[in-house]
Amino acid sequence: MPALSTGSGNDTGLYELLVALPAQLQPHVDSQEDLTFLWDVFGEKSLHSLVKIHEKLHYYEKQNPVPILQGAAALADDLAEELQNKPLNSEIRELLKLLSKPNVKALLSVHDTVAQKNYDPVLPPMPDDIDNEEDSVKIIRLVKNREPLGATIKKDEQTGAIVVARIMRGGAADRSGLIHVGDELREVNGIPVEDKRPEEIIQILAQSQGAITFKIIPSIKEETPSKEGKMFIKALFDYDPNEDKAIPCKEAGLSFKKGDILQIMSQDDATWWQAKHEGDANPRAGLIPSKHFQERRLALRRPEILVQPLKVSSRKSSGFRRSFRLSRKDKKTNKSMYECKRSDQYDTADVPTYEEVTPYRRQTNEKYRLVVLVGPVGVGLNELKRKLLISDTQHYGVTVPHTTRPRRSQESDGVEYIFISKHLFETDVQNNKFIEYGEYKNNYYGTSIDSVRSVLAKNKVCLLDVQPHEDDFQEMIKSAQIMESQYGHLFDKTIVNDDLAVAFNELKTTFDKLETDTHWVPVSWLHS
């Protein structure tokens, strides 16, 4: 850390030092965001108040104060007893009422504790019925309010003992540091648990409030210290633990909605991860199904999704398996040799569960990213894109598609289309140079990766739209439903075009926020 100089000599207090700290660190901070964070932290009023209290206490500590007496509570009791024998006038009644108030008694008790410097906690007495052979037994008392204990238990299949299966990060058990995975539970509040099922013990814990006493035989296994998770994921499905029959403890589950950002706190269990909602001040984690477990479950429930032919990615610039520009009658003539090879790098998993994400904010000198607009024919996609283009032609741009059809007299190469031979088009398809492509009336059409890069090189936002051609309204509705059910998790924003002007304003606002606000993006973006 750089040396700090406040210019106030050695008499500078901690409060003044904290106030000057952000300015001292400013030359060493890389971004405005970090500097703003420092100002917010060191400008917090509660921190200032604590520091002032600290300085006051430090000052009085130097004076070495000595308490006048150490038994203020006893003296107050004696005074109250003596006043009871006096004629009761209004002043005596008021004083007796004051001395009987719980908060005054508590204040006097604290005074005596500080004066006597008796700060050690009062531990509960050891139970009388401890087996002498159980020399490794621990008696633990935890204070539990309305929050769950933050631990799950299970019955050991070999020994039949009740053992701690997992400790939830941030829960009461985790914060105490006294209970660990593998510990054998013998008693809860004096009730033996050897002959009880885990469900019965959970019920006892759920009904207990205040202090809970555990009799535990510690595990001989050494636990590896676990650091707080720094992995964030975006949920691609809704989850309610109360409806999940497989979860080991419904009370320990974490519910979430599609689109929620979750912070992964532990992946020690391959089946059940521990997570909490991003930004939640409550440190306690909850159970969620792991990615592998959820993918396996959803794949068994929805096998029909695995055979759908359409593949869409609204975020990547390669890997479409088929073009959305194909009409229904021409799909049957599209040859499989022209489909791009499937790539895990570009295709989303067939069963969407979670996507690892990270906060992202576009820097001033950073190139714009490709934006994909997706929708079936008839929803006004082309009109919305046209209005966006003409609103700022210097800021937005579109790609020039490739085609193998002959150039018409009024067309110019590189303006309406880039005209190439069928052989060259097929070669580029084989080399994965097209984002999307298809065949219509024996001619190929497609959008190349280079055409997207050409727009981005001009420091413009590249707009790309993909849409299927349909023969009737019912087919359009069916296409939209397939998009939503199979690929809705890939869409960053859904706009309903009931009113063109309203839809355009919503679209424009969304684009502006994408360029200025911090939002969550796939981790793979940072490496693409």
UniProtKB/TrEMBL annotation:
<keyword id="KW-0472">Membrane</keyword>
<keyword id="KW-0796">Tight junction</keyword>
<dbReference type="InterPro" id="IPR020590">
    <property type="entry name" value="Guanylate_kinase_CS"/>
</dbReference>
<dbReference type="GO" id="GO:0005923">
    <property type="term" value="C:bicellular tight junction"/>
</dbReference>
<keyword id="KW-0677">Repeat</keyword>
<feature type="domain" description="Guanylate kinase-like">
    <location>
        <begin position="368"/>
        <end position="512"/>
    </location>
</feature>
<dbReference type="InterPro" id="IPR001452">
    <property type="entry name" value="SH3_domain"/>
</dbReference>
<feature type="domain" description="L27">
    <location>
        <begin position="10"/>
        <end position="64"/>
    </location>
</feature>
<dbReference type="GO" id="GO:0005912">
    <property type="term" value="C:adherens junction"/>
</dbReference>
<dbReference type="InterPro" id="IPR036892">
    <property type="entry name" value="L27_dom_sf"/>
</dbReference>
<dbReference type="InterPro" id="IPR036028">
    <property type="entry name" value="SH3-like_dom_sf"/>
</dbReference>
<dbReference type="Pfam" id="PF00625">
    <property type="entry name" value="Guanylate_kin"/>
</dbReference>
<feature type="domain" description="PDZ">
    <location>
        <begin position="139"/>
        <end position="220"/>
    </location>
</feature>
<comment type="similarity">
    <text>Belongs to the MAGUK family.</text>
</comment>
<dbReference type="InterPro" id="IPR004172">
    <property type="entry name" value="L27_dom"/>
</dbReference>
<dbReference type="Pfam" id="PF07653">
    <property type="entry name" value="SH3_2"/>
</dbReference>
<dbReference type="InterPro" id="IPR035599">
    <property type="entry name" value="MPP7_SH3"/>
</dbReference>
<dbReference type="InterPro" id="IPR008144">
    <property type="entry name" value="Guanylate_kin-like_dom"/>
</dbReference>
<protein>
    <recommendedName>
        <fullName>MAGUK p55 subfamily member 7</fullName>
    </recommendedName>
</protein>
<dbReference type="Pfam" id="PF02828">
    <property type="entry name" value="L27"/>
</dbReference>
<keyword id="KW-0965">Cell junction</keyword>
<dbReference type="InterPro" id="IPR008145">
    <property type="entry name" value="GK/Ca_channel_bsu"/>
</dbReference>
<dbReference type="InterPro" id="IPR014775">
    <property type="entry name" value="L27_C"/>
</dbReference>
<dbReference type="InterPro" id="IPR036034">
    <property type="entry name" value="PDZ_sf"/>
</dbReference>
<dbReference type="InterPro" id="IPR001478">
    <property type="entry name" value="PDZ"/>
</dbReference>
<feature type="domain" description="SH3">
    <location>
        <begin position="228"/>
        <end position="298"/>
    </location>
</feature>
<dbReference type="InterPro" id="IPR027417">
    <property type="entry name" value="P-loop_NTPase"/>
</dbReference>
<dbReference type="Pfam" id="PF00595">
    <property type="entry name" value="PDZ"/>
</dbReference>
<keyword id="KW-0728">SH3 domain</keyword>
<dbReference type="GO" id="GO:0016020">
    <property type="term" value="C:membrane"/>
</dbReference>
<feature type="domain" description="L27">
    <location>
        <begin position="65"/>
        <end position="122"/>
    </location>
</feature>
<dbReference type="InterPro" id="IPR050716">
    <property type="entry name" value="MAGUK"/>
</dbReference>
